[in-house]
Amino acid sequence: MTRTDRLTAILDLLAESGQVDVEDIVTQLGVSPATARRDLDSLAKQRLLSRTRGGATTGSVAYDLPGRYNRDDHAEAKQQIALAASALISPGAVIGLSGGTTSTALAQVLSTRADLNTHSNRATLTVVTNAINIASQLAVRPNIKIMVTGGILNPRSYELVGPYTDIIMQKVALDIAFIGVNGIDPAFGPTITDEGEASVNALMARRAAVSYVLADSSKVGRRAFATMAGYQFARLITDSGISAKDKAAFEANGTEVTVAPPAQES
Predict the structure, then answer these.
(1) How many CA atoms, within 13 angstroms, populate the side-chain half-sphere of residue 47?
(2) Model confidence pLDDT, tens digit, residues 100-139
(3) Cβ-count burial of 249 within 10 angstroms (0-12 exposed, 13-18 middle, 19+ buried)?
(4) Lesser CB count within 10 Å: N end or C end of the chain?
(5) Which residues have C-beta within 8 Å of that of residue 259, sequence separation ≥ 6?
(6) C-alpha span between 259 and 261 (Å, rounded)
């Protein structure tokens, strides 16, 4: 079992009763008490649980995400994509983060980066997002400046959409935008299930000097309802599950493909 699998399993145990003990983790997952404590500490740093003497509770969780965030068969791949995306971000950058599970994974990585959490009189990172869960997650980091777009909340995704969002987005300039999608096709490009989210994603990407689509390999070849009109799709970060054929097809259509390395067993 990889570390990512363990962390997901611990959150599942926590969700069942609202609390979990080190002994429960040792018994259920077959790990040492030291490993169980380290995993709980890691989740506490991400504000996904609250540490107690001998275990943890759900007390510190700042928001209750929609179901698609709670259990994800592709969590490990998204974590690796998030790490690859994080490596592109320098301290002091202004970035855009759309909503979605992969963008949320990137926000988690950024929230634990030591160079972004050092004391500074200036923001170590500025994040513009239309996802209120991402804003909430990063808000506890005092050196990260958060700008939340206006708009109407989509309760299925925790994303703000609509004309008010468009007005705010037109007033910002981003260094890099990271865009989550529901489907990605070498010829058809990125697609989103909700037309409002697709419009915001396209505008966010256009406001950036450089933009990347974040999509795990399970989304390759899939098409959702709405296209990102006006967006020049040129860069994709995905995981090692993408086939050589699909990677070549993207590149033949002018897309730069970054393949995140697989996770190491621990």
Answers:
(1) 22
(2) 999 999 998 998 888 887 777 889 999 999 999 999 888 8
(3) middle
(4) C
(5) 238, 239, 240, 242, 247
(6) 6
